[in-house]
Amino acid sequence: MRERIASGRRLIGTMLSEVFFPNISVILKNCGYDFVIIDCEHGPYDCSQVSLVVAMARANGISAVVRIPEIRREPIIKYLDMGADGLLVPMVRNAADAARVVDYVKYPPDGNRGISISRAHSGYAPGDVESYLKAANRHTAVLIQIELEGALEDAEKIAALPGVDALMVGPSDLSMDLGIFNRLSAPELLNAVSAVSSAAEKHGKSSGIITADRDLISASVACGMNIICTGSEVRALSKGFAGSADEIRKM
After folding, report:
1. What is the DSSP letter of 170?
2. What's the pLDDT at 147?
3. Total domain count for the chain?
């Protein structure tokens, strides 16, 4: 995922939020998607389910990102040891929170991730340990959600942190924290999106948004964001089923 982010091209992904479907990576790849985010903040997935989805994504050339439930060492290490290509970190309050995440994610000397390498993340064959640890640090992506006013205020400081690869706006929670809940076209939210994009660009980082709203996606792309997480498998299924039912009723 980190290499994809560094390319600067537009990346398109979606959220796996409710349905346990390991082969979703095959469908997403066929549809031209670059990544899938496994939602372990709101979603019901246990570790064995996450592990299988990650393994299938890696096998099919789709980046697997896990949205962690909280900023804590144990879940971060577990998801990375399963082979996740990156982490999406919610509810970051400030730059100090983001720095703590980087410390948990990166192996020494860039951080203090615990070393247990004969696992899925190394393909059970890490080879030279020192070389592998350096490669893992280069490969593993950290995406920080900007969804609290404190994180918005600290956006430049967060973007400046070594080890942070992208800032991702979470418009639902951010609009709530700004007192404009779900007003996705409100000037305050659009200004926040622009500010996050500018902060990331200033420090050579990428930025993106998590939304299914097409107008907000368009505005985000227009201000320079290149990582778009659009909708979820539940939304896609709902729209697909509703469309089919409507079409059949009209026959």
Report:
1. -
2. 98
3. 1
Looking at residue 52, what is its pLDDT?
A: 97
CATH of the domain at 230: 3.20.20.60
For 87, the enclosing helix (H) or strand (E) is strand 86-89
| Alpha-carbon distances, residue 219 vs 150, 185, 242 (angstroms) | 23, 9, 28
Q: 149: domain range?
A: 2-249
Phi then psi for residue 166, to 5 deg, are -155, 150
Q: Estimate to the nearest angstrom the gap between the alpha carbon of 32 and the chain centroid.
A: 17
Centroid of chain to Cα 17: 13
- The structure tokens 């006013």 sit at 149
pLDDT at residue 22, rounded to an integer: 93
User: Tokens 């697997």 appear where?
Assistant: 64
Q: SS3 for 96-159, per residue?
A: HHHHHHHHHHCCCCCCCCCCCCCCHHHCCCCCCHHHHHHHHHHHCEEEEEECCHHHHHCHHHHH
Return averaged pLDDT per consecutive 10 residues of the chain, 251 residues in all.
Answer: 95 97 94 98 97 96 97 97 98 98 98 93 92 96 98 98 98 97 96 98 98 97 98 94 94 94
Peptide bond into 162 cis (omega under 30): no
* CA dihedral over 63, 66, 72, 74, signed as positive or negative: negative
